[in-house]
């Protein structure tokens, strides 16, 4: 598994805004969107391209198009805040959705929504979820993708905990992780420390 930490002053500044407890929901959503643009930019650095022949108003030239645009998959609900930014930078892409909830009996993640293409073989997939905490739900989401044949999965998260990275590494899934920070640890309630709190509540309010 490859892990890339986006080390850029703009990423650090937006991350500071969303970490700050004084940031209101609207400002949080705006900063998360901007940070997501930077994560997508990094995630697409080496995607496959093809040459295309075009005419400028002046002459013929060779341009570039995306050969195989990634399928974008926000994990509901917190991943919704990264969805619009990813479509803005990747208008060629399609979007699938995964909704995960915790089964109150087994305490394991359970999918309540799975809107994905049948066959993902050879198709790059970008999974959007701001928080890689224990790694349980992301492992489940990525397993749903590999069971449909996905073999190139990039997970874009704002924050990652070392515990979650270890779990995904041990899963053996074909993953690349792009994050803005690897934080210190998880606390006893499963929150990332120092973290940013509950990414869903910070965007949409505690409903
Ligand atoms: N999910 C969140 O929203 N925040 C955390 O700190 C951990 C998991």
Automatic annotation (TrEMBL):
GO terms for molecular function: GTP binding; magnesium ion binding; uracil phosphoribosyltransferase activity. Gene3D superfamilies: 3.40.50.2020. The lineage of its organism: Bacteria, Bacillati, Actinomycetota, Actinomycetes, Geodermatophilales. PANTHER family: ADENINE PHOSPHORIBOSYLTRANSFERASE (PTHR32315), URACIL PHOSPHORIBOSYLTRANSFERASE, CHLOROPLASTIC (PTHR32315:SF4). Pathway: Pyrimidine metabolism; UMP biosynthesis via salvage pathway; UMP from uracil: step 1/1. GO terms for biological process: UMP salvage; uracil salvage. Uracil binds at residues 192, 197-199. Its cofactor is Mg(2+). Keywords: Allosteric enzyme, Glycosyltransferase, GTP-binding, Magnesium, Nucleotide-binding, Transferase. Catalyzes the conversion of uracil and 5-phospho-alpha-D-ribose 1-diphosphate (PRPP) to UMP and diphosphate. Pfam families: UPRTase. One of its GO terms (cellular component) is cytoplasm. Belongs to the UPRTase family. Binds 1 Mg(2+) ion per subunit. The magnesium is bound as Mg-PRPP. HAMAP family: Upp_B. It catalyses: UMP + diphosphate = 5-phospho-alpha-D-ribose 1-diphosphate + uracil. It is an enzyme of class 2 (transferase). It comes from the Bacteria. The keyword Cell wall biogenesis/degradation does not apply. 5-phospho-alpha-D-ribose 1-diphosphate binds at residues 77, 102, 129-137, 198. Residues 5-205 form the Phosphoribosyltransferase domain. Allosterically activated by GTP. This is Uracil phosphoribosyltransferase. It comes from Antricoccus suffuscus. Its EC number is 2.4.2.9.
């Amino acid at each position: 598994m490859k892990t890339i930490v986006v080390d850029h002053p703009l990423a650090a500044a937006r991350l500071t805004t969303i970490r700050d407890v004084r940031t209101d929901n609207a400002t949080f959503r705006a900063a998360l969107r901007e940070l997501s643009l930077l994560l997508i930019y990094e995630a697409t650095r080496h995607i496959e391209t093809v040459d295309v022949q075009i005419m400028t108003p002046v002459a013929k030239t060779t341009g570039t198009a995306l050969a195989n645009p990634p399928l974008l998959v926000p994990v509901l609900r917190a991943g919704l805040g990264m969805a619009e930014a990813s479509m803005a930078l990747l208008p060629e892409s399609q979007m699938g959705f995964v909704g995960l909830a915790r089964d109150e009996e087994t305490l394991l993640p359970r999918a309540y929504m799975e809107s994905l293409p049948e066959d993902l073989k050879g198709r790059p997939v970008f999974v959007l979820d701001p928080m890689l905490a224990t790694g349980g739900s992301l492992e489940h989401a990525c397993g749903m993708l590999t069971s449909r044949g996905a073999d190139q999965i990039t997970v874009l998260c704002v924050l990652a905990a070392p515990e979650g990275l270890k779990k995904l590494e041990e899963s053996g899934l074909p993953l690349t992780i792009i994050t803005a920070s690897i934080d210190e640890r998880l606390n006893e309630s499963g929150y990332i420390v120092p973290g940013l709190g509950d990414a869903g509540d910070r965007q949409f309010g505690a409903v």
